[in-house]
Description:
The protein is α+β, with helices and mostly antiparallel strands. The chain contains three helices and five strands. It folds into two domains: 1-42, no CATH class; 44-94.
Amino acid sequence: MKIITWVFGEKCTVCNKTHTNRKDSNGNRVCYDCQIEQKIAAEKRLKCPKCSHMMEKEFIEKTVIDKCPHCGGVFLDDKEMFGFLHAALIPHGG
Ligand SMILES: [Zn+2]
Ligand SMILES: [Zn+2]
């Protein structure tokens, strides 16, 4: 139905399941979840400055952070820090 397409968008070209109006930087139809996956995949993985273990990317509150699974350290660059702190200031119910 045409109205459904208009309201919910078209199928995500990545997962081919979710309907979305989002587009990535290349103009491809991509749903929110897949966009996050792409964003994480695009980010360079860094070594932990503390223990030199390879850090993992994690997506928290619309912000990609570097998390070290070895020492549990979480690292952010300035841009990310702002996003993280901003998110942290918003109270979560419960
Ligand atoms: Zn998708
Ligand atoms: Zn570490």
